[in-house]
Design a protein that fits this description.
19 helices; alpha/beta; 3 domains; Urease, subunit C, domain 1; Diaminopimelate Epimerase, Chain A, domain 1
């Protein structure tokens, strides 16, 4: 790919702030993500801020006897990645159990569980993550199947999309889920049942399975501290400097308490924007009060309670995404199945309006076209009623959209939060989508370029661990690769996920993972690009992505990650 021309003369237009300089990074190939001055050679940093950026000669003028000089030897430098949708709390916790990501063979799932049970003897519940709903089809997995591997102790496994749980018979008994147990939200969040009404072991959607974590004692502050200590440094290793945690359902207090404890110890390597996850309908009445209380408690130097997350439908794979036209697979009773939303359009408006009045940003999970269409209706109405509101609202995923809705998002100022790693045929996805949606709709999923073409502000994140692929495959560099190719990373001969016309270019993807996400967080004046006055959050890469073919970008290594002028990772 042709390298961007250096526009060093324009860099001099960047404002230069006065004061002593602690560190000068020189001899670098800096991509600033600033349109007026995209390239630079050197950067001066003091007190966690960029104080000068431009040519080596310009920045060298800021050197004093005390200035530390770092020669980057021509390496490519860019802003740190801002992941606008990720679940570090969930990922950290799930990383402590049995891992099933990429295990798409039923017998291998059983073997993996048996091995884990043998290696971790005892009576405490087994926690796991990563099984793919696509492996089991519309009927889903069963407790009886799990019993073949582990029968005497509870097993609790979260799906790869984090929208359903799977337990064995001992798990059902431990949780008290039986034939006469009512579904949390009938038809939306429920316990899958057999013909006799008995729960099968598949717990579908958030309020059907997230409460189980608390009941099993898996979400203490101490456990979160240990889990974060293992997981958060890995974010630095893939170049992420800021995250928006899209929710730790049910057990968010111990998760957030753990973050404050780590920050106090100086062990929080990322800027952490948190969200309050609204799990059930009954939580709506106290949503505003609950959020404001959380924001008062969790609002420190690097931890900020920022947004309200509303998961208003499920997934296509579990047939819980809400569609305008029915699924191709009918319900058990033979009737057409459309999926459903957690909140109707009127209920969604009643929920969001007082939050918007309080300038609380809303992030709405919408997979199906009905869900996104109704969410746009609500947010557009609210924007008309409060055109000067400060809150920046977003709709996340947008896997299937109604034609014309991207333009409506632009008009209403709604941010499109997307996950580029989803745009590949991982975990038998395309075959599953064709079965459930039919050919016509399955080739119109994840129309990312349409969003850019419509002028929508686009932010990007992986949704890990609900991304359907492993941690590294969910990283921004892998996401950029997939966003440009719509192929499986490292498999250049794999199919291009339809439609090929929806592939993005490198500039669009880098912008989405930096300035687009910073804009969603109302932090574009602090992070997202390299400019004098902004935080010194940047990464050093092994190769210049503009000099590689799209299929090679995932092979780039992050050599150094700097947050607030301090190195938090070095290869």
């Amino acid at each position: 790919m042709k390298k961007i021309l250096l526009l060093l003369s324009a860099v001099a237009l960047l404002p230069q702030t006065a004061g002593a300089v602690e560190t000068i990074y020189t001899n670098a190939d800096i991509y600033t993500v600033e349109k007026e001055a995209p390239q630079a050679q050197a950067m001066a940093v003091s007190n966690g801020k960029i104080v000068a950026i431009g040519t080596q000669k310009e920045v060298a003028q800021r050197k004093t006897e005390q200035t530390r000089i770092v020669d980057l030897q021509g390496r490519f430098v860019m802003p740190g990645f801002v992941s606008s949708h990720i679940h570090p709390g969930v990922a950290a916790l799930m990383g402590t159990g049995v891992q099933l990501v990429g295990v798409n063979d039923k017998q291998e799932i059983l073997n993996t569980l048996r091995d884990y049970d043998t290696a971790h003897p005892g009576n405490e519940p087994i926690l796991g993550f990563g099984w793919s709903p696509s492996v089991f089809g519309a009927e889903g997995p069963t407790a009886a199947f799990l019993d073949q591997a582990v029968k005497t102790r509870p097993v609790f496994l979260v799906a790869s999309d984090a929208h359903s749980g799977w337990v064995n018979t001992a798990g059902l008994e431990f949780l008290g889920i039986a034939k006469d147990t009512p579904d949390p939200v009938p038809g939306v969040h429920y316990y899958k049942r057999d013909a006799g009404g008995n729960p099968t072991g598949w717990l579908v959607e958030a309020s059907a399975f997230w409460p189980a974590l608390g009941k099993m004692g898996l979400g203490s502050t101490e456990r979160f501290i240990q889990a974060y200590q293992g997981f958060l440094p890995t974010l630095s290793s893939i170049g992420i400097t800021t995250v928006l945690d899209a929710g730790v359902p049910i057990i968010e207090k111990p998760a957030f308490d753990a973050l404050l404890a780590l920050e106090k110890r100086g062990e929080l390597p990322v800027r952490y924007y948190a969200s309050h996850f609204l799990v059930t309908q009954k939580d709506a009445a106290s949503a505003k009060e609950d959020f404001l209380n959380l924001r008062e408690t969790y609002n420190t130097g690097r931890v900020k309670m920022y947004a309200m997350k509303i998961s208003n439908d499920g997934t296509i794979e579990a047939s819980t995404a809400a569609l305008i036209d029915p699924y191709h697979t009918p319900q058990d009773d033979g009737h057409a199945h459309y999926g459903n939303v957690l909140f109707s359009e009127d209920e969604l408006y009643a929920l969001i309006k007082p939050l918007d009045d309080a300038d609380i940003p809303i992030m709405i999970h919408a997979i199906g076209d009905r869900t996104s269409h109704e969410a746009i209706n609500v947010l557009a109405r609210i924007e008309r009623e409060n055109p000067n509101g400060a809150a920046r609202h977003s709709i996340t995923h947008l896997q299937l959209m109604k034609d014309g809705d991207a333009e409506r998002m632009r008009e209403a100022g709604i941010i499109a939060q997307i996950s580029p790693p989803w745009a590949q045929d991982a975990n038998l996805s395309l075959a599953t989508w064709k079965t459930l949606l039919g050919e016509e709709r399955s080739v119109k999923l994840m129309r990312f370029k349409d969003m850019f073409d419509a002028g929508v502000t686009v932010s990007m994140g992986s949704d890990f661990p609900a991304s359907g692929v492993g941690f590294l495959e969910s990283s921004p560099l892998y996401g950029i690769d997939v966003g440009m190719t719509r192929k499986l990373t490292g498999q250049p001969d794999s199919i291009v996920l339809p439609s090929a016309e929806q592939r993005l270019d490198l500039e669009q993807l880098i912008w989405g993972y930096t300035m687009g996400s910073a804009y969603q967080l109302a932090a574009e004046n602090e992070i997202g690009s390299l400019k004098a006055g902004k935080n010194a959050d940047f990464i050093v890469l092994s190769h210049n992505p503009f000099e590689l073919e799209p299929e090679q970008i995932h092979t780039i290594n992050v050599l150094q990650t700097v947050v607030g002028g301090k190195t938090v990772f070095e290869h």
